[in-house]
Amino acid sequence: NFSSGSCLTKMVREGQDEEEEMMMMVAATTKPAWLEGLIGETFFSSCGIHESRRKSEKNVFCLLCCLSVCPHCLPSHRSHPLLQVRRYVYHDVVRLSDLEKLIDCSYVQPYTINGAKVIFINQRPQSRAKVSSNVCFTCDRILQEPFHFCSLSCKVDYLVYQGDDLSSILYRIDESDFTFASMRMDGHDQFGEISTMEDDADDIMVISDQSEQGNNSNKKEKKKKKKKESNYFPGMVLSLGSRRKGAPHRAPFS
């Protein structure tokens, strides 16, 4: 009887250990509320509370409440950490300098738009199949070396799928970096709605005011006029950014 009782106790303990291990694995791959909210929220829709007022698009994400708010909602979130979301080619982006204070953005391809490096929050739909030696690990979008992901969600989803511990890429939120006073609600929250840019045409594009020499000068002039009609901004340079080097190490989120 003693022997059978010991075996039963051992089996119970082993079962508890397996359950605890399973719970730890689930917890490691569970997105924190702010990250789940940022990836899943809808931005630039009209605020239901302030829809009758001008500039009521929801372009700010409250990291504490985990929801999107409009500029008129900000006084109610004055003491909360706030992240400004911008829009480029009808898709939501966040400045790399802001996002990398929250999460490791290495190997996520940034884009330099109007002098600011930004990262897409979610993957963008693709209308045609592509062949390339370097594509996004999650959605197969063509990327520049040495990047592996086209958006924040692609990196996070890949790590979750692999069963990796998300806490290794998350940083503690320093609320002093995301204060109400630091918000710039001055209309620079959209990097141009360029409807003519399709698929990966925005990956590398240089639009210059300088005219070419020789026989191509007239063709260039016609192209410039056409781009102006399509809401392109002359002199704007769109290029792939590089991963920030020498960034200070931050303690993992816990």
Automatic annotation (TrEMBL):
Q: What is the lineage of its organism?
A: Eukaryota, Viridiplantae, Streptophyta, Embryophyta, Tracheophyta
This chain belongs to which protein, by name? B box-type domain-containing protein
The signal peptide, as residue positions, is: none
Q: Which domain of life is it from?
A: Eukaryota
**InterPro entries for this protein:** PLATZ
A Pfam family annotated for this chain is PLATZ
Locate the region Disordered: 208-254
